[in-house]
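Structure ticket #2291
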Amino acid sequence: MISPSGWVALVAAVGIAGMATFQILLAVGLPLGHAAFGGANARLPEKLRAASAMSALLFFGAFYVVLSRGGLIGVASESAPVRIGIWVFAAIFGLSTLANTASRSRWERFLMAPIGLVLTACCVVVAFAS
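Resolution: structure written out below.
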């Protein structure tokens, strides 16, 4: 049976997987850039595409940390890297929420900022609950 914090970890994992997919699509050149990096470019230039690829890798790390800390995968939920990592990702998602809220892009303000806020909240709940 999945604990309440496990369910929150699953919600976070779904959001993180969606964001990783979005970053991969940006990295391969799909014209989704109005929802990323300030929204100035539909198709991201090479440097921002590389940044999207790096972001996708970061999201994969977050995916593992959230599920591990939520007790859904592995046995490392109490390991120092996972305990610290969940707080690092909570901070990253919190800063992302603030940046997206201040963006000129409507997509970032009205879609990405709320997603970031949900991911931040989920990370905090999982960090405290596990």
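Closing remark: Helices lie at 4-27, 46-69, 80-101, 106-129.
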